[in-house]
Write a structure and sequence with these properties.
The chain is α+β, with helices and mostly antiparallel strands and about 180 residues long. The chain contains three helices and seven strands.
Length: about 180
């Protein structure tokens, strides 16, 4: 991948100042730590927090794409919750690629599928009445990735997803979710 520099982590017992994976074009100070086989708690938001995942059909579409990516890149999903305007995912590092590759594939395939099916994309400028030459973006450009290094943090993140408003355990059922 052009523009990306990958530096693999060493085992925790061996420290290194070059212990991250990053893009030269990434926001200053943003580092992604891959290579130690940690779990990753990922949050990804829709563009301008628009409810692109707001219907059962779109959530099911997203889950189908997630499952295809899971099989292709060989990672384990420990838990997820999908809300109308964002999702959380607790996953292992994939055997092929890294979480950034998985997120890129998820976001691109979901967007492509919506655009090829002609589904109207929700965007803030769509309500303004002004024509816009480009298709409406579906996702924010980046995602939040938190390395989960301990069992306590894993439990904390699973509870967070489970208690999130709209999760199946919550009094308000407005999303899809699951855990292993």
């Amino acid at each position: 991948m052009s523009g990306f520099v990958t530096i693999r982590l060493r085992p925790r017992s061996q420290s290194s100042s070059n212990s991250c994976v990053y893009s030269n074009g990434m926001t200053k100070g943003l580092h992604r730590y891959y290579g130690n086989h940690d779990l990753h708690f990922i949050t990804c938001s829709c563009y301008h927090r628009q409810p692109q995942l707001g219907t059962p059909e779109r959530r099911d579409l997203f889950l189908n794409i997630l499952e295809a990516a899971r099989q292709k890149y060989r990672f384990v999903v420990h838990g997820y919750v999908i809300m109308p305007e964002h999702f959380h995912l607790l996953m292992t590092e994939p055997e092929l690629g890294d979480p950034s590759v998985v997120m890129k594939v998820l976001k691109e395939r979901f967007t492509r599928k919506l655009r090829t099916e002609g589904a109207p994309l929700i965007a803030s400028f769509a309500m303004s009445g002004f024509p816009h030459p480009d298709p409406a973006p579906v996702w924010q450009k980046r995602f939040y990735d938190f390395n989960v290094w301990t069992e306590e943090k894993q439990i904390e993140k699973l509870r967070y997803m489970h208690r999130n408003p709209g999760s199946p355990a919550s009094p308000v059922l407005a999303c899809w979710g699951g855990s292993r």
